[in-house]
Design a protein that fits this description.
The complex is a heterotrimer of chains A (276), B (542) and C (325). Chain A is mostly helical and 276 residues long. In chain A, helix 6 crosses helix 9. The two termini of chain A are 21 Å apart. With 325 residues, chain C is mostly helical. In chain C, a hairpin with a 4-residue loop joins strand 1 and strand 2. Classes of the chains: A mainly alpha (276), B alpha/beta (542), C mainly alpha (325).
Chain lengths: 276, 542, 325
């Protein structure tokens, strides 16, 4: 497929893919490399990285292995990022498609709701949701998904608005196709590429949102997440700053990888932009 | 030539990047243009004519480069000129006007401001002087209300006014050469006639040399002194306009001229007395904007349209943009719901039918669309596109695909091409696919909404011929929408002329075009460029 | 004045949205485990059921949900945001006290991000695919991927702990009391790191949008016309391209207003700034639901106001907008 070939022609996109695969490998291999509970006490607290070969990245305030937490943290980030993105894109695409295709009062009502979600700062809404529903992994994931759907909805709606009046859709109507057939069979396949690309942005934002929540001690404290570790490291920032630094780099690399892959997908699916 | 040449191109070649469909955009082009003459460059899309204009101004895109040759203007070779020299030449020595007046002007600056910029770049005049000159220029191009226009933004003017403003801007510094790159193609035929006249008047007054690029031989006949025909980046013929038009020597030129439909209609065919489609008093009004019911803009797109289509006949609906012809066509197919009136087909009133019934009955009336690129779903294979209609109406998939392949043969496409995607076909081929799709449901009536307007003239002729054959073979009744009266004259038995939502005249095409009654019809016919040319052409053909 | 009318209409259309948000969040908060009285009693160190009942009656929490909602909306219209049981003050007072640092921070971050995003975006677009572009775009991508709170912490490590150039947190020096210019300088010093932290992600976003916008506008027809008139590249960019390319940037300010407010929650927590963001965090932790609702209201209001200003600005820049409707 041309799109795949085009993707691999960009060095940035390839780097992103490699990094992402590394993170995925870390998540998958965590159980192998560190079979014990990453949140169990493992050694002396606050060991510096590279001083003890058993703890290549050192230990945190309570003496837990930082490297283990990094590996397990990859699971949490990818999991939350992936599931929250799926929720946001699913809801957003559905709402955007119906609003864009039908227009009129359906569009008005759906857009009012979307606007309401967008006017309220999404982190504040996230705080409210966490205050109400608690901080387990499930609720946090769903909350992030719920907070992130407006942007995909607007994107999908814009695509549908422009495609709805395209002549091939009108042709479909003159052939006698029903509305649902037109939406799902004719318009959606053509509207999806920008939404899929945007999904990478949503995933990047989801990972950042979750880590911010964890840093504020508002996410699930019983899992080894990168944000939790950064929050922990804040207490010892003056001297053992590595406790906060290392997981931050992990987040950076992951979000960077996701963004690069997204950009690569965009360039691969939209080849007209040669000057870029 | 009595006058000294202003611009001479000598062995000029422009190279295209790797992977383009040919190595050169322009191949060994040599021409000269003298002052006080209009030289037309004619060609179809891909002939290199626009590239010529950009090359002369040294405004080529990055990937395209001048390979060899000379461009002598005012005693120096423009190919060798550096950036600063070219900037001096642009605007002051050679000026250019473009095809799309809407996008050619900066939407965020006033028209007067952009014209004044011309003076600001090349002269040292004071602000007051510049303002006075701008007004004088706007008066020269006969824009109504020059003072108001100077303060207006581009979106506040009509297409014709914008083009006049662009001409004013181009002629601001009395350039020796004006390059006009298809300046009237995007305009209505009546506006086009006005702009052509304006360009000719200005040219005669200021003795400017004009390089006029177009694809329309009628335009050439209207204003050209000399003409050049281009194909695939090469010049195939040049000479005085009269000579080339009446006695073309190169086969390509002959083919192009033959493809231009004459305005005179062929002898009328016998028409059936039974009407298959009747449109009675159909109206459609649009309301836009308005806040709480006040200040809404009301546009009557179609007003009390009444038409009859006899069985087996072709009814043309002609009009300019905004006349309502497309809206009427879409009302008939129920893509738009009419506000009032009746549409009778097979004893059923389409205007009042419910959505579900429309979906069922739509197989009897099908549509062919204008844009060959947008009318096919880019993600479906060609055979699938043609088979979709029958499949929706219950035909089993295998049978529908088989029938689709037969239809491919009918419209002149290779049946095995059904496995390819739309982007692998040319514009003309895509229109054939669109035609096949419309015919797949074996409709009683075919509505063709400007089906050839987006095609090159030679391809246009082929598709029209195909339509004629199908009409004979299948006994189709067709409603043919177009803005091009010449096409209507060739293809239609009956014609209706629309203006601002109303049908102002209708009847047999020979009557309406030969002896027009309504002043608007007369204006439309008079505005068809190259009136005399077509008369000569008709004399030669008949 | 038509501009004002148009923007005003959009503003009026936002009022139902505001109410939608408030009603939605109010109803949502009804599902929260424990209410203000529970939190209050936890603060008091316990109490019996009778006290709880009394308190509930006092705060009107024993009424039905629709009644409570109606009461709340009625008080809201009179700009009475209720009482904060935790702070012992009216919610409105608490919020007003905390508003200035947040507004200061947001204004500073937005200006920083917009200005430098614009400059670097233009530079990147002028040297597409050459090294300045690659460098700027790569840095932009890295800033975008950096968690803001982590960057803040690292900035504290470098600039406060090791270099000791800037303070590690707080809004102003609590030890000394300064006035006038010295106070301004002191506050400014305290805000440098937070501004940088909050602005960095938005800098990356504005950078990318400006670059993309410039590239798109440079391909438009009227740029070709400008060149055909003999304009040199610099004047083409400043006279024709910039203003057109700015339009998406201006829209973006409005769209990102909410995200920036949300970002301030985290940044204020990292730098211990007494702003609205940190108040939101504290309300969640202390279960002060009245205050939380008040913050929701004020945040939404802020976003609406920012969008109103953006609308005015956009209409001023683009004459096509005033022509519609």
């Amino acid at each position: 497929m041309d799109a795949v070939k085009r993707y691999f022609r960009s060095p940035a996109a390839v780097i992103g893919l490699v990094l992402l695969l590394v993170v995925i490998a870390m998540a998958v291999g965590a159980g192998h490399l560190y079979p014990r509970d990453p949140l169990a006490l493992a050694g002396r607290p606050l060991l510096w990285p590279f001083t003890n070969p058993r703890f290549p990245l050192g230990t945190d305030n309570s003496g837990r292995d930082i490297a283990a937490q990094i590996f397990y943290g990859a699971r949490i980030s990818l999991l939350i990022g992936g599931v929250a993105t799926a929720i946001a894109v699913a809801i957003g695409t559905l709402i955007g498609a119906f609003a864009g295709y039908y227009g009129g009062w359906i569009d008005n009502v759906l857009m009012r709701i979307t606007e309401a979600f967008q006017t309220l700062p999404n982190f504040v809404l996230l705080l409210v949701l966490v205050a109400v529903f608690g901080s387990t992994l499930t609720t946090v994931t769903i909350a992030i998904g719920v907070v992130s759907w407006p942007a995909p909805a607007r994107l999908t709606r814009a695509e549908f608005l422009s495609l709805r009046n395209r002549e091939f859709v009108q042709a479909g109507r003159t052939l006698g196709m029903k509305d649902l057939q037109l939406i799902l069979g004719e318009i959606l396949p053509n509207a999806l590429p920008p939404v899929i690309v945007y999904a990478s942005v949503v995933m990047a934002l989801s990972i950042l949102l979750e880590s911010a929540l964890a840093f504020l001690r508002l996410s699930d404290p019983n899992v080894a997440s990168w944000g939790n570790l950064i929050g922990l490291g804040r207490d010892v920032l003056r001297v053992q700053w590595y406790v906060s630094a290392i997981p931050g780099i992990a987040i950076l690399v992951t979000v960077l990888a996701v963004s690069l892959v997204g950009q690569g997908l965009n360039d691969a699916l939209n080849p007209r932009l040669k000057s870029r | 030539m009595s006058e000294p040449p202003i611009l001479v191109l000598d062995g000029f070649s422009v190279r295209l990047p790797m992977g383009a469909d040919r190595p050169h955009a322009l191949d060994d082009v040599s021409l000269s243009i003298a002052s006080n003459e209009i030289l037309c460059i004619v060609g179809e899309s891909g002939s290199g004519k626009s590239m010529m204009a950009n090359a002369i101004m040294r405004l080529l895109p990055n990937e395209v480069a001048i390979e060899r040759g000379r461009m002598m203007f005012d005693g120096r070779d423009l190919c060798a000129a550096d950036a600063a020299e070219m900037r001096e030449v642009r605007g002051a020595g050679i000026a250019m006007i473009f095809q799309e007046p809407m996008t050619a002007l900066n939407p965020l600056r006033t028209v007067g401001d952009q014209i004044a910029e011309m003076f600001g770049i090349h002269t040292d005049l004071s602000r007051a002087e510049i303002d006075a000159r701008v007004l004088a220029l706007l008066e020269d191009v006969r824009i109504p209300n020059p003072k108001l226009t100077a303060k207006a933004y581009p979106h506040e003017l009509s297409g014709g006014q914008r083009q006049r403003a662009m001409i004013a801007m181009a002629l601001a510094l009395d350039p020796r050469l004006l390059i006009a790159d298809e300046p009237t193609t995007a305009l209505d035929v009546t506006t086009q006639a006005q702009i052509l006249k304006l360009i000719r008047d200005l040219q005669q007054r200021k003795k400017t040399a004009v390089l006029f690029i177009t694809h329309d031989f009628g335009v050439v006949a209207e204003i050209a002194d000399r003409e050049i025909v281009m194909q695939h980046g090469r010049i195939v013929e040049q000479g005085t306009a009269d000579a080339v038009l009446s006695h073309p020597s190169h086969p390509y030129t002959r083919q192009l001229i033959a493809a231009v439909p004459p305005l005179k209609a062929p002898p009328p065919r016998p028409l059936s007395s039974e009407n298959i489609l009747t449109v009675a008093d159909v109206s459609k009004t649009y309301r836009t904007g308005g806040f709480l019911g006040r200040g809404a803009r009301v546009t009557a797109a179609v007003k009390n349209a009444t038409l009859n289509l006899p069985k087996g006949a072709t009814l043309g609906i002609v009009g300019e943009s905004g006349s309502g012809k497309s809206t009427l066509a879409r009302c008939i197919v129920r893509l738009i719901d009419p506000d009032a009136g009746a549409i009778l087909l097979r004893d059923k009133d389409w205007a009042q039918m419910k959505r579900d019934d429309v979906r069922r009955e739509t197989r009897h009336i099908q549509m062919v669309f204008q844009d060959p690129f947008a009318s096919l779903n880019p993600r479906r294979k060609a055979a699938e596109l043609v088979a979709q209609g029958p499949i929706v109406h219950g035909t089993p998939r295998a049978k529908a695909i088989a029938e689709a392949r037969e239809l491919f043969a009918l419209v002149g496409l290779d049946p095995s091409a059904g496995d390819r995607f739309p982007h692998e076909f040319s514009g003309g081929q895509r229109q054939r696919i669109g035609l096949a799709r419309a015919l797949a449901l074996k409709p009683d009536v075919l509505i063709a909404d400007e089906p050839v307007s987006a095609l090159d003239v030679s391809v246009q002729a082929q598709v029209l011929r195909l339509l004629g054959e199908l009409r004979e073979r299948l006994g189709l009744s067709i409603v043919f929408i177009t803005h091009d009266l010449r096409v209507a004259a060739q293809v239609c038995d009956l014609v209706a002329v629309m203006k601002e939502g109303e049908i102002v005249e209708h009847g047999l095409v020979a009557d309406v075009f030969g002896r027009p009654q309504h002043p608007y019809t007369k204006a439309l016919i008079a505005a068809v460029p190259g009136g005399e040319f077509t008369a000569q052409h008709e004399a030669a053909v008949s | 004045m038509r501009i004002l009318g148009l923007a005003g209409r959009r503003l009026a259309a936002s009022i139902p949205t505001l109410f939608l948000i408030l009603i939605g969040v109010f109803l949502l908060l009804q599902f929260a485990p424990g209410d203000t009285v529970d939190a209050l009693m936890a603060q008091m160190g316990g109490g019996d059921a009778a006290t709880a009942r009394e308190l509930r009656k006092f705060y009107g929490l024993d009424l039905s949900v629709p009644m409570q909602l109606a009461n709340y909306l009625w008080r809201l219209v009179r700009l009475d945001l209720g009482f904060s049981a935790i702070y012992g003050k009216p919610v409105a007072t608490v919020i007003m006290e905390r508003l200035p640092p947040t507004i200061l921070l947001m204004t500073a971050s937005l200006s920083f991000a917009f200005f430098f995003g614009l400059v670097f975006g233009v530079i990147a677009s002028r040297s597409v695919n050459k090294w300045p572009d690659t460098l700027i775009s790569t840095l932009g991508l890295i800033f975008y991927a950096t968690p803001s709170f982590w960057f803040g912490l690292m900035a504290i490590v470098v600039f406060s702990i090791y270099l000791q150039w800037l303070p590690a947190g707080g809004f102003e020096d609590i030890g000394e009391v300064r006035t006038g210019v010295f106070r301004v300088i002191d506050i400014a010093r305290h805000l440098i790191l937070p501004t940088l932290t909050l602005g960095l992600i938005f800098l990356a976003i504005y950078l990318r949008i400006m670059r993309a916008s410039m590239l798109e506008v440079l391909n438009l027809d009227f740029v070709r016309t400008a060149r055909a008139k003999g304009l040199d590249e610099t004047r083409v960019v400043t006279g024709h391209v910039l203003r057109n390319a700015l339009l998406p940037m201006v829209t973006l300010i409005g769209l990102q207003a909410g995200t920036m407010l949300g970002g301030s929650v985290v940044v204020e927590s990292v730098f211990s700034l007494p702003g609205l963001g940190r108040l939101a965090y504290e309300s969640v932790v202390q279960r002060d639901l009245n205050t939380l609702l008040g913050i929701v209201f004020v945040s939404a209001l802020l976003v609406i106001v920012v969008n109103f200003i953006v609308d005015l600005l956009y209409a001023r820049l683009d004459p096509r907008i005033s022509a519609e409707g």
